[in-house]
Write a structure and sequence with these properties.
The structure holds 2 protein chains of 2 kinds. By secondary structure, chain A is mainly β. Chain A is built from no helices and 11 strands. The termini of chain A are far apart. Classes of the chains: A mainly beta, B mainly beta.
Amino acid sequence: KAGVTQTPRYLIKTRGQQVTLSCSPISGHRSVSWYQQTPGQGLQFLFEYFSETQRNKGNFPGRFSGRQFSNSRSEMNVSTLELGDSALYLCASSLDSPNTGELFFGEGSRLTVL
Amino acid sequence: GNSVTQMEGPVTLSEEAFLTINCTYTATGYPSLFWYVQYPGEGLQLLLKATKADDKGSNKGFEATYRKETTSFHLEKGSVQVSDSAVYFCALSRLNRDDKIIFGKGTRLHILP
């Protein structure tokens, strides 16, 4: 069974631009969570979507947004990019609630903001 | 609030050495506890879990025991290999839809041949 697929794997943007990242969960998984990973802060939770609804949200500014489609695929968008947004963005899927702890992660999208 | 504290890395060991990575937690109620591993260039993958006190999770030679009295979930392996070099994350969750999984900051492990 195919794993979690994230695209693009690498991208470079400049300050002020916006970016959209995509995540295709494992077939049958309805929950998609997004995390930002940086060396200093570790893994920080962005948001979680289930059946096209945002079910949980972390402490990030409104420049970070997401959505989920009817096929469970998810996208996240970051507008007005800042240097500090440079990070590895990880998507994780789970069957239902991510609180069972059994998350399946993609390889991530590495964003560099210049 | 809920939190997870891991020992800071990097941890450098020689092959076949004994490994311990410490993890302590703060949580209300009875959380489930997890260890995830991230190999270079990859996403995280679940290594093992324990859902109640005194449970021992194990996988690939790694073990961790859920100790409620010390609020700990230390990861151990008797004989590490070069292929175990990775970042290890301790995490907790409560079975409540409104709670999110809490991850520690991760511990980088280097195994020297």
